[in-house]
């Protein structure tokens, strides 16, 4: 494996020395491009009682391409599919090398507070979010309790 770029080393050190509130990102010892992420659901959201596990991978051409991130914990959300893939502009067409790991994690946390059912990845969830919002919120809370409560 090639040497880790200075940028990844700096970002990793900052994540450890100045952690993002309610988010931990720990690199794997055997591959420092892989991170185990733990994200607390934001207050005021249907996910607030949960702690969600994610995986984050920095491709070889990072920061020219976005990190690969997915939820490992099941979640009921219109922008996250059953495989844990995330529909978020900064992970796709709005990626910029100026963004960092911490920015991405904060964006994912913000997505939990503000789902966008008009740009869904999970179509059935988005339809319920738009058609029966109260039921969708109740289901999101139920899934959080079932799958993301420590």
Automatic annotation (TrEMBL):
Gene Ontology BP annotations: DNA damage tolerance; free ubiquitin chain polymerization; protein polyubiquitination; protein targeting to vacuolar membrane
Q: InterPro entries from the xrefs?
A: UBC (IPR000608), UBQ-conjugating_AS (IPR023313), UBQ-conjugating_enzyme/RWD (IPR016135)
- Among its keywords, does the record have ATP-binding? yes
* Originating organism: Pichia membranifaciens NRRL Y-2026
Kindly provide the name given to this protein in its UniProt entry: E2 ubiquitin-conjugating enzyme
Which family is it part of? Belongs to the ubiquitin-conjugating enzyme family.
Question: EC number(s) of the enzyme?
Answer: 2.3.2.23
Q: Active-site residues? A: 87
User: Which GO MF terms are attached to this record?
Assistant: ATP binding; ubiquitin conjugating enzyme activity
- Domain of life per record: Eukaryota
UBC core domain boundaries: 3-149
Q: What is an example of a Pfam family matching this protein?
A: UQ_con
SUPFAM superfamilies found in the cross-reference section: UBC-like
Q: Which GO terms describe its cellular component?
A: fungal-type vacuole membrane; nucleus; ubiquitin conjugating enzyme complex
What stretches pass through the bilayer?
none
**Keyword tags:** ATP-binding, Nucleotide-binding, Transferase, Ubl conjugation pathway
